[in-house]
Amino acid sequence: MEVILEAMPALGEAWGLILQPVVIGYLVLGVVMGLCVGVFPGLGGIAGLSLLLPFMFGMDPILGLALMIGMVAVVPTSDTFASVLMGIPGSSASQATVLDGFPMAKRGQAARALSAAFASSLFGGLVGASFLTLFILIARPIVLEFRTPELLMITIFGLSMVGILAGRVAVKGIVAAGLGMLVGTIGEGASSGDLRMSSYDFPYLTDGLKLVIVGLGIFAIPEIVSLLRQDRAIAKEQKLGGGWLDGVKDWFANIWLSVRCSIIGVIVGVIPGLGGSVVDWIAYGHTVQTTKDKSNFGKGEVRGVIGPESSNNAKEGGGLVPTLLFGIPGSGSMAIFIGAIALLGSGQIEVGPAMLKNNLNITYSIVWLLALANVVGTVICIAASGGIAKLTTIRFVLLAPFLFMIISFAAFQSGQNLMDLVALFAIGFLGILMRRFDWSRPAFLIGFVLSNPAETYANQSVQIASSRFRKSLEDGLEYIFSPIVIILIIITVISVVVGLRQAKNLRSEGDVASGSKRAPLIFLAAVTAYIAYAFYDAASIPSFSRDRTFPMFVAGVCLVGCAWLFIQMMMKPETDPIFADRESHGEDATATHTLWSTLAWFAGLLLLTSLLGFILALALFLFAFLKVRARLSAGAAAIYAACGIAFMCAMAWSLNRDFPPGLLQDYVDLPWPLT
Amino acid sequence: MTMKTLALAASFAIASTSAFAGSHAIDLSGKTVEWIIPFSETGGSAKWANFYAPLLSEALPGQPTVVVKFMPGAGSTKGANFFQEQKYDDSEGTLIFGSSGSTQFPYLLGDPRVKYEYNDWNVVLASGTGGVAYLPPDLAETLEEEGVAGLTDVDFIYGSQGATRLDLVPLLAWEMLGLNVEPVFGIKGRGDGRLMFERGEANIDYQTSSSFLSGVMPLVEAETAVPWFAFGALDDDGNIVRDPTFPDMPSFKEVCEATEGCETSGPAWEAWKAFFVAGFPAQKMVFLPAGAPQAAIDTYSDAFEAIKARGDFAEISAARLGKYPQMTGAKAKTAMESATKVPAEAKEFVTNWLSERYGVTLN
Known about the structure:
CATH architecture of the largest domain in chain B: 3-Layer(aba) Sandwich
Number of strands of chain B: 13
Largest interface: A-B, 59 and 63 residues
Shape of chain A: globular
Helix content of chain A: over 70%
Radius of gyration of chain A: 25 Å
Strand order of the largest sheet of chain A: 1-2
Number of domains of chain A: 2
CATH superfamily of the largest domain in chain B: Bordetella uptake gene, domain 1
Helix content of chain B: 40-55%
CATH topology of the largest domain in chain B: D-Maltodextrin-Binding Protein, domain 2
Distance between the termini of chain B: 51 Å
Strand content of chain A: under 5%
Number of helices of chain A: 29
CATH class of the largest domain in chain B: Alpha Beta
Oligomer: heterodimer
């Protein structure tokens, strides 16, 4: 109680600081800038903040904070546009939103999905801030209770969400998650730097694949390609149902879900080391488990939007705890944020353990500026959502080339290497096949995201625990089985048992008919071959290195799963769900264009880029695509293409980003943006 | 600081630049200088570059825009390899590169990915730092009572980023003192190492000076951490002396001398010293690409000189960089040479030690 009484004056001071017209003005400016930058998937916060940094030097701290927080806060809000409207997960915070948000857009309810998402975001942000106001005072000792075994258990809990999202054939989902984890282990191992599935002769893979590329490849590309094949608008019905008010009502009807998911978000956000990558999946899993009628998940269930969106803005608030109290950034944008705070007001504010003691008023200002920025951002977004939702009624063939443009650019920013585009294409192809044969893509992504923490925390726990056991048995057991670990184990077991029982009713990606045996069998064989090779590759790492254990273990489990699937495939008739194949019945089978011709367009962009560089290739691609595939007149195609190029250049120029160069650039010096 | 003093300082910086510049300076008006940092936006090098970039923009003739461009990959060898391919004539002074200890170490250890050569580049600034090792209170008490000998049978756990990184310096130092330190690899930054210490999982740690000041001093005040020694600093003759930022802490040399079994001569000491010098007193450097003319080198050196001469430099840099030399001109060159050359014996000692102790081979 005493602590809280001491905090009250600081809270008052904080509000005094915030509620000045000029501070609010800077906040709104930051929000607007953040919304503009946020349209780029996978780049938003970091790019925007880097842009602001030069202005931070010597700026009045509160104004600088307002500007930066305005920008950071709205990224998880604005990237909802891409997830819901286009099926593109804008950042790790909005991956789960895609699952139900995009199907809603396809049903013509984009505006409703968006406003439900924004209302949830806003509420989540406010719940997060209120919770933090008290929690931040007592957070330090609690956060320190989360040692490596606890972090490992939370990671495992996150992985257990695979159980819910595994799809009709649970083993397929588990193998998909394992495949995701194996893809996540590609590159230098964290422990002794041994290489997995890569070599120094081919340096690109040694750094591993980036989340942006895997997220875009596994979700966005299959959806874009599939829609493009059908030659229609995203929304099936021409008339858009469900206005923005419906979405807000949906949210209000599920307010308790929103409260629970906000709390989940803020708590997971508080724990340093995990960041936001699991929050939305845990929230999604919780949403599914607490919904009575599960039949609509994956087909456009509004609760599937409300849950993750409530948690991801709350998480931003929670993420302030490790950032401000420990000086350990929870995400890339938070790391820049810390750097920028040091520039403000010539370094009077020192992020870290002393923050609460010396700068409690600033801490509270940050918490509530974040909440306020959420409010401002949400209001703008809801106001815009009705209009922007109309995008879903445009013929998709007119949108698709620009989507290819944006995701290629976003992918390239992750490593600034032409190989980024190749990787995007390869993962995209995997995504297309997984979608076709009904292998759970969410499970794959969860596996990928959690691969790194699972491996690191497992290795570290084993190492530290064995040192404790050397001291005494009691010491070791106490370290591993702390009360928090035991609670987490219980929660995980319950979640897995309940999840598996419910998974059969849940089609996270809609219904898929079964077809012939051959194609699914070939895909399974290819997956098995990769896993077997990954096992062999890990086994060839010298045995004293810890870098071999985790991939070998995962690959081993997966191989057992694959063997089981092979046996099932031999025994079951071809109507069994195990042979699910989208090409046999339904939308994909009757699509106007074939998969290969559609994919060839994207491959063409890639090939041209490697020859001519991105901008020249893009100009040709946009023009040719709009002329040939969309059958526009040459003049209209040229105008559209020019607009696309202009937009791209303006964005890249203002964010100070480069484009992929091609062979041509090796021989000729060209001015920007052709370089 | 108010806007007024900032403006004053800026005009002072500009005035002093033009005084230095003379006839041979290159003019960068209307240009954009790209400063390549081979790490992500989130690391220590990013903070360092972001601190200098706006100041450099003011101090260069013509006040060009200075943008920091991040090119992470392969522990900074990707960006450094890229810079190696750049020729001065392609950029004419609008491209500079910032390297760090993590760029130096793979170069010194003969990492197969390294395609760059420091001697081709032209150094214009070298920024130093230091490091402090610290212990939990109970072990510090043991140390107080029984000396280092009391710690030799303790199982030490240390959160490490990798034995071939800067962590090599503290790990080798502790080993020389006879400590049994088990590094737990896989942490993402030194901040995570400190967190591991705070959680009681690690019971020894080190931080670079600026992180020690901001992250560990509050723990020292709360009596949950006790500083042990600072690695030290180099005097003008290349001897290791006490770190000027921490004059009350013994240098590693002093601790080693006072410890039985630890010698301040011989292969282990020479190896430690060589890698310490490579990693700390000239940790971060700014380079112009190969083939830069003297005029360009002078222009940049003068600009950094002007930044250092700002009236408020001591104040604004203390929190960001610590109280360490920011060397330009001939001093930077000397620092670069000592940081990028290690005797063959030292290299051999460290490579053997890495492979025997940690099973790490570099090819």
